[in-house]
Amino acid sequence: MNYKSLFVLFLITLFPKIGIAQDISIDSLNKMPLETLKLEMFKHEITSSAYSKFSKVYLKRSLKTKDTIQMCRGYYFYAYTLRPELALKYADTIIALSKNSDHDLYPTAGYILKAYTYNVNKFHKKALDNYIIALKYAKEKNYINHIFDISGRISDLKTITGDYKSSTIVNKNVYDLMIKTPGYIKKNKFDYFYLLYSLTTDYINIKEYDSANIYINKAFKEINPSEKYLNISYYDFVNLSGYTHYYKKQYSKAIDSLKKSASNIGDHDRAISSFLISSIYKIQNEETLFLNHALVADSLALKTKNYSGTFRELYENLIDYYKSENNVKKELKYLNRLIKLDSIL
């Protein structure tokens, strides 16, 4: 699972992408109550021209109100349509306007916007610094949604930078708080199952496989196999159980779980699963099965542009295989794949 793709902007409510046409006039937008304008804006993808049009009108109208929070909202909504340097200026404006506000969302939202902008542009240290400040404000205001959201983003950044231990600590703290928050899990199933998924991967990354299995089993007891919770499904946890079986050298169970989940997970995860299956067959000297699954993993890795270090071993295995077959052309093909991967990592 691509973890970054799972985070939704905290103020954006998911609406059906239907409703007002993109060619609605500016005059009509100016006549709407601000709250209606906001709700209609969120019916459009944040990257669409319609969203840009709605948010620009919202900003202009919010500035006329002279109301600090309305102005902050206007800057925030429109900032996501801008290039990074302007988005950062808008974030600083939000922070300056609301630095002494007692509103639940501000100035926290300004720091979230700033962190988000740095993160998507690969400035991970600056993003982390701003998320930490945002989390401080969220805790001061005891705004639980922000605490969970920002903590998740901090955990993601820790994972991206390879600090798996810190990611585990952050997610475990969030888990302990979430299960103590009355009614939260019932109303926010996706958040809960995503947290279980994140904690499981954290424990796999730090090689604590028994701990990983604790959270896999929690998910199995609570998740409905026939439903999806945004990007999360029962089979994501079946797939993760395949990982833990693999690393514990329980190869028969690993193959069973990885194959069972294969048709129900995304190509990114299936690439890794196919690689693990190929590795098991290599260990078992099943050359034909090894090659079949290794080639599937390679194809999916190319399709999804998955440049994970996991695939270094895949290409090394393919190089060794074709070398043993005296197939120089294929050996060089995967040597070039390996060189490209190393240049990216």
Describe the structure.
The chain has 345 residues and is mainly alpha-helical. The protein has a domain at 266-345: Serine Threonine Protein Phosphatase 5, Tetratricopeptide repeat. The protein is built from 18 helices and two strands. The protein has helices at residues 26-31, 34-41, 49-65, 68-79, 84-98, 108-120, 124-141, 144-160, 164-180, 184-187, 189-205, 209-222, 234-247, 251-261, 267-283, 287-304, 310-324, 328-344, and strands at 228-229, 232-233. It has a two-stranded antiparallel ribbon with strand order 1-2. A hairpin with a 2-residue loop joins β1 (228-229) and β2 (232-233). The protein is elongated, with a radius of gyration of 23 Å. The model is unreliable at 1-21 (pLDDT under 50).
Keywords:
1% strand; 345 residues; two-stranded antiparallel ribbon; 72% helix; mainly alpha; Serine Threonine Protein Phosphatase 5, Tetratricopeptide repeat; disordered N terminus
**How many helical elements?**
18
Order of helices and strands: HHHHHHHHHHHHEEHHHHHH
The major sheet is characterized as: 2 strands, antiparallel
Under the CATH scheme, the architecture of the domain at 266-345 is Alpha Horseshoe
Strand content range: under 5%
From the N-terminal CA to the C-terminal CA, the straight-line distance is: 19 Å
Q: Taking Cα atoms only, what radius of gyration do you get, to the nearest Å?
A: 23 Å
Q: Poorly predicted ranges (pLDDT <50, ≥5 residues)? A: 1-21
Label the overall shape.
Answer: elongated
- Spatial strand arrangement across the major sheet: 1-2
Query: What top-tier CATH class of the domain at 266-345 fits best?
Result: Mainly Alpha
